[in-house]
Design a protein that fits this description.
heterotrimer, A mainly alpha (about 400), B alpha/beta (about 260), C mainly alpha (about 300), A: about 400 residues, mainly alpha, ABC transporter involved in vitamin B12 uptake, BtuC, 2 domains, two-stranded antiparallel ribbon, 2 strands, globular, B: about 260 residues, alpha/beta, Rossmann fold, six-stranded mixed beta sheet, four-stranded antiparallel beta sheet, 10 helices
């Protein structure tokens, strides 16, 4: 009964709160006021229902916190994922599915899939700095832009091909990351976030206004698609080709980031995220560790930026807005910070869902924003939380057997 | 062998925060083979002293000199904490600072970071040298866990360990950096008498077997009096006494400083 | 000289609005050490509510400065209500959570509110009715400073005086300062910390709403996206002055306003934003505590 009363109050509060924005729409130019009373009804009902859900979730979260204190309980999925054998088999199945995908579906589906895969790589790259090292980068899209523009410009001026620029784009944006990161990485986490946000915006302003170099807001068109021994390809063929390049790039990214994560460097990143002071007290050079995470994250964005330019054959500054950075960030946050599998899953959900549910796509950013808040409150570890790595060594088994 | 080899020599260390003088020209030595203790009431400036020595704060005045055996003397003032650790001086924290979302073993493995050197590219290629080094890290870390009695929990998350075990894990993690001097900040805080007794043994073992000198801050007088010599006493940022346990017990200044403090310890 | 004076006064006007918004950032940061990313959105919502009220009034034939006052009151009420709700939903459940989580929640809220207004209203720019008349006594200096600028400057000065009185003289202000110094201690002496935090959000939001109404009527148009840039700029101002410091926010706002105004006037208006962010980066690198801020040692 008390819950009912509370929900009624919440409902009234939200009706009041949303009244001017949801119920009224003024057109000051044509001098028309539009009243939308039905919206108020929706708000009332929705907030009533949601307040129940909200309280239920909060209560569950508290209960879970308590049970965690008395002993860790792991989900079944989590246990399954910690089994290496299962992980390899699952990866294999997914790879086969990815390889036969274009044989089953048409070019349109392939194009959508390519953009999802681009976000997979972007998410994995950002995951290095945000997920592993805990450096919140809000201007990540700038590195994507550096890659895309380096291919577009080098292709335009010097006619250089895709394969030559692919590593160059990565390295350039990596260098860009080092140069930017060097002065700012000693800043505290929240300052770092805002400075990277500033860099992202400066990058876009420069792209728009430095017309002699970047061709301004109109962008660069007629960028070459990736070549395959000079064979002419129609749209279907080149899409297919790009799709497979993209699959290879994703596999490459997963392989490398996974190796890095389980290396001495990767452990230092995670330690840095967990506790900076303890980390330096254990002899880890903070500046160098942060810089390596930041620059390596930038590297992937640069690589996939080259591919993006080659895929769309046209780029302009509008592709590199803060919203893109926000989408990539939500992929990492939703999927699970630090978890490679989680980020891949996050990218597919966030990119494909709005793509296939057209009615929903309008509400995409609204949902992303809400999801970021809700995830942080109710499931901060993301869909798939960080999987712990178990280390074994030769002598370990015998010793435990003996004594 | 008239004089013991001084490992750490702190001369006139002073630390100001704005107008507040947290540490006021404190001098202190730790010699080879010693378990030295730094005691004093809450807020006496002991942890600030530790933070100055380990490079987390840069002291306002004074000298912190490290004399590693067979190597040149190093002045630690103004060095970054990671450099201090590289020179062989490791520490634990009063309010446990473990890497909560890493496993117990990984926590110790982090300690090996500054004694290993695989870089980014070699880690990506995962060459034979890197794999060997990884094996070594795991092995050393595992041995350390055995020493502090946590080997069975190697693959648990650090945050799920009980309190006393977390303190021991901090010690193992610090030891993984191969120090010759270990600074322990209230290692027995929050432990029950049995755990404290075990810790007592562990500290002695580290001192005797590993030949690591120890400087500890502690409130548990029984532990301090049992194992440490010399003892330094701080109050209001100043050093008010130093000497053997017996000398400290009989020192009127110390008794005054501790009046009413010791009953609850 | 006139040109210089014009830029100076333009910068002052702009800067005083940055200061109004920056106060919200600084006050919230001072208490819970969180960058309230959604603060710019609160400002935008304030401007939008004002537009709706002013729009209805003008369509039904009312006009003049009284309509502006009415719109401002509505904007303040709604922005405060949004600020209060925002804190309750997105920040309170995360108190004590890692900073990164709080920050991400704040960014999520900012994106959410932006798109909420976009969907509920329109993606287009809406014209804001001009409600400030040209005062006759301003005639002689009208080529340098307009009546709108005068209204903005007067309003901000009065608002700042009221805020200072609130913080320095009232019991609430005392409780706010105590909470800022040491939250757990404040709780021990019987201050309802949760209420103080809510109140901080409400006051900060109200200030942002005032800024929103002033800008909307000055620039003459409103759109769902205005909060983002204004928010980042105001944050820059807050950091510039020393985050957590109220006079710092005002100083930072003015410095930023002048920098932008002079840079746009003498160098190039295309790169106005670059100057603002360049200033932010520089100040963070050279003097992270800001102009008036005190460096706080992190406790170990």
């Amino acid at each position: 009964m008390q819950g009912f009363k509370q929900s009624i109050l919440v409902s009234i509060w939200f009706v009041f709160l949303t009244f001017p924005l949801m119920a009224v729409r003024v057109n000051t130019a044509d001098r028309i006021v539009e009243w939308r009373w039905m919206n108020m009804l929706w708000v009332a009902v929705a907030s009533f229902v949601l307040s129940y859900a909200w309280r239920y979730m909060l209560a569950r979260k508290q209960a879970r916190n308590k049970s965690e204190e008395s002993g860790q309980q792991q989900g079944r999925v989590q246990v399954l994922l910690e089994d290496m054998g299962f992980r390899y088999r699952a990866m294999g199945v997914l790879l086969v599915l990815a390889l036969i995908f274009p044989l089953v579906f048409d070019t349109y589906q392939n194009t959508i899939m390519i953009s999802a895969l681009i976000y997979v790589v972007l998410g994995l790259g950002l995951n290095i700095s945000v997920g592993l090292a805990g450096l919140l980068d809000l201007g990540y899209v700038a590195f994507f832009g550096v890659g895309a523009y380096s291919y577009a410009l080098l292709n335009h001026h010097f006619d250089l091909g895709f394969w030559a620029i692919l590593p160059v784009g990565g390295i350039l944006s990596c260098l860009f990351g080092v140069v930017l990161g060097f002065p700012i990485l000693r800043l505290r986490g929240d300052y770092l976030a805002i400075v990277t946000l500033g860099f992202g915006m400066i990058f876009k302003v420069v792209l728009e206004n430095w017309s002699d170099f970047t061709f301004g807001p109109s962008g660069i068109a007629n960028i070459d698609k990736p070549g395959l021994f000079g064979i002419d390809m129609n749209i279907d063929g080149s899409t297919l080709y790009i799709y497979y390049i993209m699959i290879a790039l994703v596999v490459f990214t997963i392989l490398i980031t996974n190796r890095l994560r389980n290396s001495r460097i990767g452990r230092a990143w995670i330690a840095l995220r967990e506790d900076e002071i303890a980390c330096v007290a254990m002899g880890i050079d903070m500046a160098r560790t942060k810089l390596s995470a930041y620059a390596l994250g930038a590297f992937w964005a640069g690589m996939v930026g080259v591919l993006f330019a080659a895929k769309t054959t046209f780029i302009n500054p509008a592709s590199f807005t803060f919203m893109e950075s926000a989408i990539i960030l939500s992929i990492v946050v939703l999927g699970g910070m630090g978890s490679i599998l989680g980020v891949i899953l996050g990218a597919f959900i966030l990119i494909l869902l709005p793509e296939y549910m057209r009615a929903f796509s309008e509400y995409r950013m609204l949902a992303f924003g809400a999801a970021m808040v809700l995830m942080m409150i109710f499931r901060p570890q993301g869909i798939i939380s960080n999987i712990r790595t178990k280390y074994e060594y030769k002598g370990l088994r015998e010793e435990t057997d003996n004594g | 062998m008239a004089e013991k080899h001084k490992l750490l020599e702190v001369k006139g260390l002073t630390m100001d925060f704005g107008g507040l003088r947290a540490v006021d020209s404190v001098s202190l030595d730790v010699c080879e083979g010693e378990i030295a203790a730094l005691i004093g009431p809450n807020g006496a400036g002991k942890t600030t002293f530790f933070n100055c020595v380990t490079g987390i704060y840069t002291p306002t005045k004074g000298d912190i000199l490290l004399h590693p055996k067979g190597l040149d003397t190093r002045r630690l003032n103004g060095l970054k904490p990671n450099r201090v650790t590289e020179m062989g001086l490791a520490r634990t924290f009063q309010n446990i600072r473990l890497f909560a979302d890493m496993t117990v073993l990984e926590n110790v493995m982090i300690g090996r970071h500054c004694r290993t050197k695989s870089g980014i590219f070699r880690s990506i290629l995962r060459s034979k040298g890197v794999r060997q080094e990884e094996q070594e890290i795991v092995e050393v870390s595992y041995q350390l866990l055995k020493k502090v009695g946590l080997a069975d929990f190697a693959n648990e998350f650090a945050k799920n360990l009980p309190y006393g075990a977390q303190r021991r894990l901090e010690i193992a993690r610090a030891m993984a950096t191969d120090p010759f001097l270990l600074l322990l900040d209230e290692p027995a805080a929050g432990m029950n008498p049995q755990e404290t007794a075990e810790l007592d043994q562990l500290i002695c073992k580290i001192s005797e077997q590993d030949r690591i000198a120890i400087l500890l801050i502690e409130h548990d007088m029984k532990l301090v009096m049992n194992i440490s010599n010399p003892i330094y006493v701080m109050e209001y940022g100043k050093k008010i006494a130093e000497g053997s346990p017996q000398q400290i017990k009989d020192n009127p200044k110390v008794i005054e400083a501790y009046l009413g403090e010791e009953t609850d310890a | 000289m006139d040109y210089f004076l014009e830029l100076f006064l333009g910068g002052l006007t702009r800067g005083s609005i940055y200061a109004l918004i920056a106060l919200g950032y600084t006050m919230v940061y001072g208490i819970i050490q969180l960058i309230n990313f959604a603060h710019g959105e609160i400002y935008m919502i304030g401007a939008f509510v004002a537009l709706i009220v002013a729009g209805i009034c003008t369509i039904y034939g009312f006009a003049g400065i009284s309509v502006l006052v009415l719109a401002a009151i509505a904007a303040i009420i709604y922005a405060s209500a949004y600020g209060y709700t925002l804190e309750k939903i997105a920040y309170r459940p995360l108190r004590g959570a890692p900073r990164l989580s709080q920050l991400i929640s704040a960014i999520g809220m900012s994106i959410f509110l932006q798109n909420y207004v976009l969907l509920a209203q329109t993606p287009d720019f809406l014209p804001f009715p001009s409600l400030i008349p040209e005062f006759a006594f301003m005639e002689p200096v009208a080529h340098i400073v307009g009546s709108s600028e005068l209204v903005i400057l007067m309003t901000t000065v009065i608002t700042m005086i009221l805020l200072t009185l609130l913080i320095k003289k009232t019991k609430i202000g005392k409780a706010m300062r105590a909470t800022q110094q040491d939250m757990s201690m404040a709780r021990l002496v019987g201050i309802n910390v949760d209420r103080i935090i809510s109140l901080t959000f409400v006051i900060g939001s109200a200030l942002a709403a005032i800024g929103g109404v002033l800008v909307a009527s000055y620039i003459g148009q409103v759109n769902f996206y205005i909060g983002f840039l204004a928010g980042v700029k105001a944050f820059t101002a807050a950091v510039l002055g020393g985050i957590g410091s109220v006079p710092g926010a005002v100083l930072g706002g003015l410095v930023l306003g002048w920098t932008e105004s002079f840079a746009a006037g003498y160098v190039s208006s295309d790169y106005e934003d670059v100057f603002a962010f360049g200033l932010l980066v520089l100040i963070l690198i050279l003097r992270p505590a800001g102009l008036l801020g005190k460096a706080r040692k992190q406790k170990v």
